[in-house]
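Protein in question quoted for reference:
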Amino acid sequence: MPDFILHDESQRMQLLVSMRRLLLVGQWSWKTLRPLFHWPQHRGRHPVRNRSVAVFNAVVTGAVFGTVTVLTAGWTVENQFGVLPYSQQYPMVRFVSGWILLDGWMYFWHRLNHRFPLLWRVHRMHHSDPKMDVTSATRLMSAST
């Protein structure tokens, strides 16, 4: 979140996590009320399985890549590396620019996962859900993220 909204980093993180959860629950609820296809009686098991994969992925990714990400981010700030330091006086420009850059990178990475057989072997779990719903987006393995 932009610095001008919340001043404490933990508050920003809590707000971001809460917004993601609210969005996921809202989308899942909407798809329950207005389904694209008929679900069997056990509608609740499907998201539990997908979220279990997501939690495992989050733990592994956090443990493996968390330290590298924090160190890299610290280095880029310390060395004024990249394009975002040039927008220091405009926090909203920095926030929107960062969002666009991250989204562009995630799209590019997703396309690479489809293009190369080795990456596809790991990534295809994301597309193998027999009943697609909003929780299918969280069905990723650590190497695919």
In short: The two ends are 22 Å apart (CA to CA). The longest helix spans residues 45-78. The mean pLDDT is 77.
